[in-house]
Amino acid sequence: MKKNEILYVLGTKAQFIKSKFILEHLINNNFKVFILDTGQHKEITSSELNYFRNNFEYISISNNKKNISSIFSMIIWFTKVIFSNNKIDNLKDTKYCLIHGDTISTLIGLIIGKKNNLEVVHIESGLRSYNWLKPFPEEIIRTLVTRYSDILSVDSKEAENNVRKYESKKKIIRLSRNTIYDSVVMTLNDKKRIDNNTLTVTIHRTENIYNKKRLKSLVNLLIKLKNENLYSEIEWYCHDITINALNKNNLITLLKNNDVRLKKLILHDNFINKIYSSKAVITDGGSIAEECSIMNLRTVIWRDVVENREYLNKNMLLSKYNHDEIVYFLNETSDSNKISLDEISPSEQFVEQLMSI
Question: Do 314 and 271 reside in the same domain of the chain?
């Protein structure tokens, strides 16, 4: 690779966390990194970016100063971003546009990369549920982005099999595991686990937040677990959209009256330390579920389908929203509390393979 500038499209907090050490390795290898912020999680990611101490050039393409926290605001934001110019100056020495995952910002990144004649590299490519509506719109976005990107980065055998049909047309970067591994290991850094008998909860997916029946089902489950004294504390870390949905359905007072504590989101490093000291976790986030798998935490996945089943170890339950199975699972003893360590950094693997293309 002769050109030494790279554009990274930043959307959500989870995308940044999974890309964080890729960007660090690029910077350490003397690449000039442009971070283009779509503004999807503007408030959250602005704090996380302090990790790099301004060793990058920041580009913002939206005027919003708050996180996108409703379907209506997302439609307005997406429309403004897509129909803006999106031709970016000072990219003449830039070859690659890095995008990650399956969010609306991933799709925006693909469009921006193509508009600026850059080769688009799709990180965490190849994951599929093979159900267009589960998850929606993530399954559609990931399929489109995989199809139209120039380089695909996969981190599991299942994902590799799903992109095999593109091998003759696209370059494939193969990683030993998901790059979220680096964030977990670097954050904990040999810390000993302390069990605080806390259940930590984080739910934010569209299919769970905007489904009134499913949201009430989760609230009822948490109240049941609290009343059975299975945990001394239940703490629910809420995205903006989650708080809005709970408020709309008059569930906040009910939760507070039953001593389920609603908490604001915290920086990723602090959150990793928080869940590492928890007795169990309930989440619908793919990133958090995989982090919990690495830490071997007792984890309930509040979903009925996941795109990547390879991280589902004995401490993970794909719940399918079944209360009885969840309660039974949480009453069992964890299989192990040891972190699943690997000698290889997937982020470093990614940079080495990209540089060799």
Answer: yes
pLDDT digits (tens, 9 = 90+) for 196-230: 899 999 999 989 999 999 999 999 999 999 999 98
Instruction: Assess if residue 320 is contained within a domain.
Output: yes
With a cut of 90, say whether residue 104 has pLDDT above it: yes
CATH of the domain at 272: 3.40.50.2000
Instruction: Tell which residue, 89, 87, 142, 132, has the closest CA to residue 112.
Output: 87
Average pLDDT over residues 68-86: 82
Q: Is residue 339 part of a domain?
A: no
Instruction: Identify each DSSP E strand in the chain by its residue range.
Output: 5-10, 32-37, 57-60, 94-100, 119-123, 151-154, 171-174, 198-202, 233-238, 260-264, 280-283, 298-301, 316-318
Beta bridge partners of 237: 263
How many angstroms separate the CA atoms of 227 and 196, rounded?
Answer: 18
Is residue 96, in this structure, part of any structural domain at all?
yes
Burial class from Cβ neighbours inside 10 Å (0-12, 13-18, 19+) for residue 269 reads: middle
3-state secondary structure string across 162-216: HCHHHCCCCEEEECCCCCHHHHHHHHHCCCCCCCCCEEEEECCCHHHHCCHHHHH
Please state, in angstroms and rounded to a whole number, the distance separating the CA atoms of residues 164 and 187.
34
Q: Are residues 43 and 69 in the same domain?
A: yes
Number of domain units in the chain = 2
**Strands laid side by side in the 57-60 sheet:** 57-60, 32-37, 5-10, 94-100, 119-123, 151-154, 171-174
Calculate the CA 220 to chain-centre distance: 26
Domain extent at residue 242: 188-331
* Cβ burial, residue 313 (10 Å; 0-12/13-18/19+): middle
The whole-number pLDDT of residue 335 equals 66
Q: Is residue 259 part of a domain?
A: yes
